[in-house]
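ok trying again, last paste got cut off:
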Amino acid sequence: MRKAALLVIGLSLVSPIVSAQDSGKLALLIPGLFGPGGLTVQSEAVLPDGSTHSAHFNSAFQAEFTQFNIALASQLAAVPLPSPASGFTYTFDSSLGVFQRSTQSFGPILTERAETIGKGKFTFGISYQRFTFDSLEGVDLGSVPAVFTHDGSQLGGGRSDLVVTTNSIEASVNQSVTFLSYGLGSHLDLSLALPFVTVDLAARSDASIQRVGTATSPATHFYDDTATYGITRVYTRSGQSSGIGDVVLRLKGTPARGEASALAFGLDVRLPTGDEEDFLGLGTVGLRPFLAASFSHGRVAPHVNLSYLWNGESVLGGDVATGTKGDLPDQVTYAVGLDIGASKRLTLAFDFVGTYVVDSPRLIRQTFTAANGQAFPQIGFVTESYNLANAAAGLKWNPAGRLLIDFNLLFKLDSAGLRDDITPMFGIEYAF
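nice, full thing came through this time. structure:
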């Protein structure tokens, strides 16, 4: 806190700071960074008709803030949930008249195995994840460049002036998930995942006027300053939201099961219970049919998952400010991994998780060349499909009885999308 206070004091000595603690919806925080009128600067220039010059600057960054919001919001609100599957699975031994554990392994953590929990069995669990997003499409969120141009930027004079900005976005998600699983039958499970989400979002823009066409006329474009015609300003906004996220209901059945293998089909139904305008949910129903295949060979149990997530329309896919809805990108998720029963009380879990995102806005790096030939970095947006790749490593420990303690680390393997370098997860679960 002391370092943060010193930083703010130091900045106030070199440039005015426009700041606001956002009391509205988080999805409007980034579009409102420069205010409802966009980025404006002061001007003492007078037009030929005697009217005051309007020093208003635009950019693809500002014009496509909605696209930036879609990319940011869909990732913020779609962080992966831990699997609600039970770590303890049972089959009924008719010869003994009792339930016996069907696997030595306690199963995967973020992915799914085919085995069901067992008729009448019940599992309760709580997990906690913290995502601190570091980059978007490989661009450091602490340094996102954007160039704002005047109308007719290549026409000379004041129209050639630019405002060059370096933008910083801090985004983090704390997610606590309570899950319940119940064995409706010997080959059929019903699960519920209830997330509680806290989102912190802050945006800062360091703006600097580049007098490309008015080097000898500082009064044409400037930031209000008591001493000189200033060229810099800092814009900031921040906010936090907390609440229930999107509840997920799961039905999983295992139609095929042998002594060392099983095949399951399931369906996740995501309910729009989270406030999408605060990034707590997606604001639309989601359907995710999936397939899971599991095998076992001694203490080693490989598994394979394949799913398709269909998303409906939401304001996060359109324009939050106007309430216009648009399609959120669908996703294909595929995973392969194995869990190893290192001992009767310890399982090690490893996974590769890939996601193919269908037709989503993507940030790209570009270069803007000013009228005087000077080049400035900036960003733009395209719509296309892309892949995400992650790896996960974790463990499940059984300290006593039917209690499990889970720990997992999720690692990014590429730079596509909105990413956290390393995401930790802690959890506990108990089987009845």
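cool. The longest strand covers residues 375-400. The two ends are 45 Å apart (CA to CA).
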